[in-house]
Amino acid sequence: MSKTFPDGFLWGGALAANQVEGAWLEGGKGISTSDMQPNGIFGGVVERTPGDRSIKDVAIDFYHRYPEDIALFSEMGFTCLRVSIAWTRIFPQGDELEPNEAGLAWYDALFDELARHNIQPMVTLSHYEMPWGLVENYGGWGNRKLITFFERYARTVFTRYRDKVKLWLTFNEINMSLHAPLTGVGLQEDCTTEDIYQAIHHQLVASGMAVKACHEIIPDAKIGNMLLGGLMYPLSCKPADVFATLQENRTWLFFGDVQCRGEYPGYMRRYFRDNGIVLQTEPADDEALSHTVDFISFSYYMTGCVTADPELVEKLRGNILDMVPNPHLESSEWGWQIDPLGLRTLLNVLWDRYQKPLFIVENGLGAQDKPDADGHIHDDYRISYINDHLVQAREAIDDGVELMGYTAWGPIDLISASKAEVNKRYGFIYVDLQQDGSGTLERRRKESFYWYQGVIASHGASLKP
């Protein structure tokens, strides 16, 4: 018998401002860290000069085309769209006392358009970008002053959109700062591990302050954190491999522990002691951290393995993570291992650990979709991938996990974060854009568009077990 998802389950997709909006200097927007990384997270910083270009400067031009795109999302049946606010549209340099009205007005229009289609926005406050001015003038999140600047930004948008947005997230994939510190916390390449954790501490304090502000300003809202779900398995049942895996999983679960429990766990305090890391804290930090999130959101793309044997470590580059490949799994054309059952495992791990509602806010398959001679895009591989992951999500619900919703990553083709690629397509909607910037930006429905439409309409009953 086909299983359906619970009443009230939210269906949709997820986007990031810097990967879809374009219009990088329109409406008073300032320059962000993403703008200074035109070749992606792993492309390094490039000083921008007048006349140069990045594919992200226009991206898929969501800034001007959002009504058309939202209409397509509505046609699929979306009840939720995860978006992010570009901090630099609200505070161009990051440290202004007054916000940029043009930026605020644009998001008003976006949220109003979503409301017209009965699509609930879920808004990420900081998604892989921050004002470049805060990096240049303050040294990024290594400076405590950024806590104040972020709280001002958060309170500004909470107040402005209190009647329009009831689901919020603080920092996208907050644990990613360990792997890409410029993108996560605005630190340069020569920073130390202590520098990174000091910046992370400031960001965790700021996250707690944002939670507190959200609860004060929008009492009927829910605010969550967002983790990169980097679940690891032991490569063998050797005790050393099992313990090394526990330690590896703790490197990202630490962020959830702080944001869900309100304090640093003992294993992290030991890590700091053993590695000579001394964080500079203030008495008020503990109170800020005590403001815990209402729910946990996360991305899930793949799993990996861990071994304590250095001779067995053959690393595979993945979603900002280095990991040992699993010999029992197949991989995508980008080398990302495909593990639907791992999603069920992760959902159970997070539910058992925190007993807070969960939300899958990123999951999808990047592939080089190509239209056929008739212009159709047959992406059965994407259908299979998402089908199998949703089946496991439904099984986790039967396990007792409280799951709020599912927003597929990149419901429309966008610019990848890691290397600013457009050829790595995730969408149910094809965008006529090529890596050299050519193309009409025309939108076209893929085969998966109609499939996902059917899944939502049947509330999951159409999924193939």
TrEMBL record:
| Record keyword Hydrolase present | yes
Q: Where is the active site?
A: 362 (nucleophile)
GO annotations under biological process? carbohydrate catabolic process
InterPro entries of this UniProt entry? GH, GH_1_N_CS, Glyco_hydro_1, Glyco_hydro_1_AS
Q: Which GO terms describe its molecular function?
A: beta-glucosidase activity
- Keywords noted in UniProt: Glycosidase, Hydrolase
Which Pfam families does the record associate with it?
A: Glyco_hydro_1
List the GO cellular component terms.
cytosol
* PANTHER family xref list: 6-PHOSPHO-BETA-GLUCOSIDASE ASCB-RELATED (PTHR10353:SF122), GLYCOSYL HYDROLASE (PTHR10353)
User: What family name appears in the similarity comment?
Assistant: Belongs to the glycosyl hydrolase 1 family.
This protein's name: 6-phospho-beta-glucosidase
Annotated source species:
Enterobacillus tribolii
The beginning of the lineage is: Bacteria, Pseudomonadati, Pseudomonadota, Gammaproteobacteria, Enterobacterales
